[in-house]
Amino acid sequence: MDCLFCKIVAGEIPASKVYEDEQILAFLDISQATPGHTLVIPKEHYRNIFDLDPQVAQALFGQVPGLARRLKQALGAEGINVINNSEEVAGQTVFHTHIHLLPRFGQEDGLDIRFQTQEPDFEHLAQLAQKIRETTEEV
């Protein structure tokens, strides 16, 4: 397989590991968007969150809070962003499921994530919520 993260799991490519168990591996991202930027991945290959097995998802997301606390304590971070990009349109560049843990150190730490705010259209939101509730999950 020509997957960068699978090669890291197999030991073919070096990584700065911060956590490992039978199912999960966490290592420092080489980009270091902020100091301590960590990727948490399942060792088994899944393209992204849409393909992720529920039991593997439980193991993957189950490690996130503890790793976040470790990053906060070890690095003196004030907070953390937890990000998953699934599919190219969402910014996914490595097609192996992964969660980004981005320690935050203040407004000047080099990472700027903002959401546009606007007056809410509650009727539209109610219609959207209903559509989502009525949609059955495709497996």
Automatic annotation (TrEMBL):
PROSITE patterns: HIT_1, HIT_2
Residues annotated as domain HIT: 4-111
GO process annotations (BP): nucleotide metabolic process
SUPFAM superfamilies: HIT-like
Residue positions of the active site: H98
Gene3D superfamilies to which the protein is assigned, alphabetical: HIT-like
Renumbered ranges of motif Histidine triad motif: 96-100
Protein name: HIT domain-containing protein
